[in-house]
Structures are given as structure tokens and as C-alpha cells.
Design goal:
Blueprint lengths: L5 H7 L13 H8 L11 E2 L5 E2 L6 E2 L12 E5 L2 E5 L5 E2 L1 E7 L6 E7 L5 E2 L3 E5 L2 E9 L6 E7 L10 E2 L9 E4 L5 E5 L3 E5 L11 E2 L18 E8 L2 E8 L10 E7 L7 E2 L6 E2 L7 E11 L5 E9 L2 E15 L5 E3 L8 E2 L26 E4 L9 E3 L4 E4 L11 E3 L5 E11 L2 E10 L2 E7 L3 E6 L2 E2 L5 E2 L4 E9 L2 E7 L7 E2 L4 E2 L5 H4 L6 E8 L2 E11 L4 H4 L1 H4 L11
Antiparallel strand pairs: 1-2, 3-27, 4-5, 5-7, 6-28, 7-8, 9-11, 10-11, 11-12, 12-13, 14-15, 15-16, 16-17, 18-19, 19-20, 20-21, 20-22, 23-24, 24-25, 25-26, 28-31, 29-30, 30-43, 31-42, 32-38, 32-43, 33-34, 33-42, 34-35, 35-36, 35-37, 38-39, 39-40, 39-41
Length: about 575
């Protein structure tokens, strides 16, 4: 099946009808015309393996709250706990759930979805009558888009198998309980459909719910595309928070708007301050900001959780951001974040818990879903992987990274270095990649008799190097988009600098589509297998490439890998 792009899908999935243009708020017009100064370089506190962390340890935080590819966040306040998940697209196991007690420090709980459903877009995590639900837009291979649901009695699972609600040609569900006590899903468009009381089947027809506020036609956006409806009830009003303007494309496109009504059935009143969040200039630290959910903090203050691209680092995907908001006397709310590159006061009343997770892996336990995921796996993909002591053996598939369905790992740092040992068996071939999709990747591959160079998503035959290989350790350094490979055939005593360096800043959605990110990948192809061991990760400080310190200092060997 040909993979459907989100832009094409919006055309098919009722992106929205045209409306008369709304007047431009004076403050917004002034901001749009103003020249934004370039923000000072951000300096994060460093956590596990040197990874940047949001909590600065002094009562402030710096975005992102979850670095790397964590788009379309859906967040649930559950007593004193917060849970979040995000679009997992072609990665399986998928829908990793994260936990926090202060909205700033987040740690993964585990994946909720194990059965491949094709690409997974923006989901909605909610709780009703003591049970957890995730509503999932998906397009399984050979089937049209539909909304599925999984449920669990505990957030840790086990989660049910997906149930097809047969809501055809829809994406971006948002759950709400109406004033009538009935459950509803809102979807892109913006449309709604009633659910049965158990939330596992529909109880009515899809119908138009709201005609979103329309920005002036001369604004620079990707397209109108009303999407991501998230709803809450506060006091006498229902609030509907929606994204318009297109998810990627020009940095000024994606934005957050809102409406309110005293009934889930409308009529809906546009927020007089629309848009509430919008990137105004390419000089800002975060681009294409949108797809927001309003959530109450531990002490009763309120926050917006949404995603954005980091200025100059679209390769990292859309990252999860936190911005303060406040309720105003007229019953509306407004965003207060300002320059999100600067430290902001943390939410009050929360208790800081563990943050992040080590990416170094000795393969002594299963970390599929939390860290590792096969890209676009076949139903039997998991059978390829076998833990063997402190190693992971992956049977070969296909002839190259293009058709091997690599194992991938998302990263959240601008510059980093990884190392791993590969051991070939049979007619196996394997290597280390920076992998976006089958049509966009770079990397180094090892077969029994030669070393391969992958660039522009294909092998560069002219760069093939004769070299017998059974066991090899590979080091990949990505320093501000410049990728360098080294490899060692004597357990790291001596290293060979690979003859080609690669620049990867252009490998992102606006070039290749798919809304993915550039991930570390391990591939195993051919009729044999590759055994991977001792995977190590560390973030690098800025300017690393220019100081040449990576030549002088070997990769540090740690006695223990943090869990």
C-alpha cells in the first residue's frame, strides 16, 4: 500500500470549509510585523549521559519537557499523577506512556500498543469511571483510516487489543463527557460522534460540531487543516482547543485557537484572542507550535502542553513543550510563556520525580517500546529479535536498510555519540544508521568482505571498502548535523576514520514527509543474523566538532549503565 501523506490525508478527511475572514487583533498584528531578536543560546542542565534536562534544579525549567520526537501530546491529570503519550507513527511497540508528578520531570512507563496498526497519528488518552482509554487514529495496511480504541484498568496495563470503532476517514480524536452525561469524540473537521457508555462503540452518526475561527488569508501558513480538538469542562463552559494552519511547512503556520460553549452541542463562541499560540518568526527558538491541551497543575495553576520544532533542528521531530496560561475575569484563558528559550518558573506544588531514561543498553533486559522499536514492522517482526545474555540477536531481513525494517532509537540532543558492537553470522550484514524512513537515511554497513557507505538512502558503490569483518565496534558521532563514523576491529584499541562525512540537517518532514524524526538505527539484512552488544550513548556539548576533542578522547567506558 502506498503510504498516505498527512497533507493528502487532510484533503480526504475534510480539512475544513472556508469562512469569512476574522479581523486581526491589533496586538497580534503588531507582533507579526515586529522584528524578533535572535534568542541567546540556550544552556540546559545536563542529566543522564549528558542529556539535556528540563528541570534546572533552581525552581525553573527550560523547554522541552520531553526532548526529541514526542509529537501531538495528549495529557491526563489523574489525581496527583500526570500521564502523557504521543503519536508513534510506524514505531512498534508504540504509544509509550510517560509519567510525571510535576509536569516537568517525565519518565516512561511503557508501551500501550503492541499490535501493528500501520501509522499512528494524534491519539487521546482519557479516564472514565475508573478505566483508562486511548482513542487511536490509524490506517492499517490495505484499510482506510479509522478510529480505534484500547483500554486498561491500570495505566501500566495490560492494555486491550485495538477495537475498530468504524469512524471512517477521521483523525485526531478528542474525548469529552457532555452535560447530558453521554460520551463524545470530536475529530478533525471539527466534527463529533456520540459513544456508547462503555466507550467501545459508537452510538450515533458523525456530524459537524464547530466551524473553526479562520485567520486572514494573507497569513503565511501551510493550509487551514483544523485538527487536534482537545476539550475540557470548567464551570459552566466547555472549552474546545484546536490547531489550525498546518502541522509543518512554514514556521508561522501551526497555531492554537480556542472556542467555548455552555453545551457540548454548541453553539461555539470563538476566543476573542485567537490565535493563543503561534510562532511569529524564524528567529524564535521553537517553530510550528501547536496541538495544545490545557491542563491544571498540582497547585491549581494552569498550563498548555503542545509540540514544536526546535529552531534549526527539525531532524529531532516535534518536541513536547510546556507553557503557562491563566484564566481571565471574562472566563477565557491566555498563554503567558513568551520566549520559551528562557527559564520559566516550574508549576507550583508538584513533587519532582525521576526524569528521562538512559539510552546506553547492555541488552540484559527487554527495552522494546521504551527505547527500541522496529520501523514499520510486519506482524511477525518481533520474532526476529532474541536476547542472548547481554546481547540482542536480530535475524536478517531484506537486502539493505531500505527493506530490512531497522531497529530504531529516538534521541533528543543536538549533538551526541553512540557506539555498538556488531557480530555477523551466516550471510548476515548489519550496520549503524541515522534513519528517517526507507527513502531518507545515512549510515555504515558491514558485510563479510567489505564496508558499505549509505548516503541519500542508497549505497554509494564507489565508496565500498574491502575489509573482512566478523566482529566490529562502530562509533557514530552526530555533531550539529555533521555525521562522522569510526570503526574498530580490535575491540576499540585502534580506530579507522571512515572516509565520508555526511551532513543531515535536511532530513526532516518538510523534505521527505511522514512527520518522523532522524533516529539512531541498527539494521540486520541478508540470510544470516547480526548480534548487537554494548550499546552506549552520550550527549556532546556544543562546538564539539570544532574543538576536535572527540579525536583526543576515547569514548568513556562506564562500569554500570543507568536504568
Amino acid at each position: 500500500m502506498t503510504k498516505q501523506s498527512r497533507r493528502d490525508a487532510f484533503k480526504t478527511l475534510l480539512a475544513g470549509a472556508s469562512l469569512p475572514l476574522a479581523p486581526v487583533a491589533a496586538a497580534h498584528a503588531a507582533a507579526l510585523s515586529a522584528t524578533c531578536s535572535t534568542p541567546a543560546p540556550t544552556r540546559w542542565k545536563r542529566g543522564i549521559e549528558g542529556q539535556r534536562q528540563a528541570d534546572q534544579g533552581d525552581g525553573t525549567f527550560i523547554n522541552p519537557i520531553i526532548a526529541g520526537d514526542h509529537p501531538d501530546p495528549t495529557i491526563l491529570k489523574d489525581g496527583k499523577d500526570y500521564y502523557l503519550t504521543y503519536s508513534s507513527f510506524y514505531s512498534y511497540p508504540g504509544l509509550v506512556i510517560w509519567h510525571s508528578t510535576d509536569l516537568v520531570n517525565w519518565r516512561p512507563v511503557g508501551p500501550a500498543l503492541h499490535r501493528p496498526l500501520g501509522t499512528i497519528w494524534a491519539v487521546d488518552l482519557c479516564k472514565h469511571n475508573g478505566r483508562y482509554f486511548i482513542y487511536i487514529p490509524a490506517a492499517p495496511d490495505g484499510k482506510p483510516w479509522s478510529i480505534y480504541v484500547i483500554w486498561a484498568d491500570k495505566i501500566e496495563g495490560p492494555w486491550s487489543d485495538p477495537i475498530d470503532l468504524n469512524i471512517a476517514d477521521c483523525i485526531d480524536p478528542g474525548h469529552i463527557v457532555g452535560e447530558d452525561g453521554k460520551r463524545y469524540l470530536f475529530v478533525n473537521g471539527i466534527r463529533k460522534i456520540r459513544l456508547k457508555d462503555d466507550g467501545l462503540a459508537t452510538d450515533g452518526q458523525l456530524e459537524k460540531a464547530y466551524q473553526p475561527w479562520r485567520y486572514p488569508e494573507d497569513w503565511v501558513t501551510e493550509n487551514f487543516a483544523p485538527e487536534g480538538p482537545k476539550l475540557l469542562r470548567r464551570g459552566k463552559y466547555f472549552y474546545l482547543v484546536t490547531a489550525v494552519g498546518g502541522t509543518a511547512g512554514p514556521v508561522t503556520g501551526h497555531m492554537v485557537i480556542a472556542a467555548r460553549s455552555t453545551s457540548v452541542h454548541g453553539p461555539w463562541e470563538h476566543h476573542p484572542g485567537n490565535p493563543l499560540v503561534r510562532s511569529m518568526s524564524t528567529s524564535e527558538p521553537w517553530w510550528s507550535r501547536g496541538h495544545a491541551t490545557a491542563v491544571e497543575g498540582p497547585a491549581g495553576d494552569w498550563w498548555l502542553v503542545y509540540h514544536g520544532y526546535e529552531n534549526g533542528y527539525r531532524t529531532l521531530g516535534r518536541q513536547t513543550l510546556l507553557e503557562p496560561m491563566e484564566w481571565t475575569a471574562d472566563g477565557w484563558f491566555r498563554a503567558l510563556g513568551g520566549d520559551l528559550s528562557k527559564p520559566l518558573p516550574k508549576p507550583k506544588g508538584g513533587k519532582a520525580g525521576p526524569a528521562g531514561v538512559a539510552l546506553s543498553d547492555d541488552f540484559s533486559r527487554n527495552r522494546f517500546g521504551v527505547q527500541w522499536a522496529f520501523h514499520d514492522p510486519a506482524p511477525d517482526e518481533a520474532a526476529r529479535a532474541q536476547y542472548t545474555g547481554k546481547a540482542l540477536r536480530i535475524a536478517g531481513r531484506g537486502a539493505s536498510p531500505v527493506d530490512s525494517r531497522p531497529l530504531t532509537c529516538s534521541v533528543g540532543d543536538r549533538s551526541y555519540e553512540v557506539e555498538v558492537t556488531l557480530e555477523l553470522s551466516g550471510q548476515g550484514e548489519g550496520g549503524v544508521l541515522l534513519f528517517y524512513s526507507q527513502k531518507a537515511f545515512v549510515g555504515l554497513g558491514f558485510a563479510a568482505e567489505h564496508v558499505k557507505t549509505f548516503q541519500y538512502a542508497e549505497e554509494q558503490g564507489w565508496a565500498r571498502v574491502p575489509r573482512k569483518t566478523l566482529r566490529v565496534r562502530v562509533r557514530m558521532t552526530n555533531d550539529e548535523h555533521v555525521v562522522t563514523f569510526r570503526y574498530s576491529h580490535d575491540e576499540g584499541k585502534t580506530w579507522t576514520l571512515h572516509g565520508t562525512r555526511m551532513e543531515v540537517s535536511g532530513i526532516h518532514h518538510n523534505v521527505f514527509g511522514g512527520f518522523l524524526s532522524l533516529k539512531v538505527g541498527l539494521y540486520s539484512a541478508g540470510s544470516g543474523a547480526v548480534t548487537f552488544s554494548d550499546f552506549r550513548y552520550r550527549a556532546l556539548a556544543w562546538g564539539w566538532r570544532h574543538s576536535h576533542r572527540y579525536i583526543k578522547k576515547p569514548f568513556p567506558i562506564k562500569k554500570a549503565i543507568p536504568t
